[in-house]
Amino acid sequence: SAPSSSHCPQFHAMDTLQRNGYDLARAMATLVPQGGPVLCRDEMEEWSASEAMLFEEALEKYGKDFNDIRQDFLPWKSLASIVQFYYMWKTTDRY
């Protein structure tokens, strides 16, 4: 049987993104409850300080174009991980 979306947030997120025609803002609005995302810390992939700095540099250059960020700055990270990191990072004082 297929894993339920609660056990596999990446699949759920990608599925939602697809259903919203890859409109990230619309997909996030359906995924993220009012008040921000509920991400379990243990679901977050570990990011090193240098990866976080690369991410911030990429964000400055590309805005929220996560495909370009991944391609040019963090090719070893999954797109889902980068998107997840962005929403966690937004809740920090570095934002």
Automatic annotation (TrEMBL):
GO MF term list: DNA binding; histone deacetylase binding; transcription coactivator activity; transcription corepressor activity; zinc ion binding
InterPro entries documented for this protein: ELM2_dom, Homeodomain-like_sf, MIER/MTA, SANT/Myb, SANT_dom
Domain SANT: 42-94
Chain ranges of the ELM2 domain: 1-35
Keywords carried by this UniProt record: DNA-binding, Metal-binding, Nucleus, Zinc, Zinc-finger
One Pfam family per UniProt: Myb_DNA-binding
Protein name stated in the entry: MTA2 protein
GO (cellular component) term, any one: NuRD complex
SMART domains in the record: SANT
Gene from which the chain derives: Mta2
Domain of life from the UniProt record: Eukaryota
Swiss-Prot/TrEMBL GO biological process terms: negative regulation of transcription by RNA polymerase II
PROSITE patterns reported for this sequence: ELM2, SANT
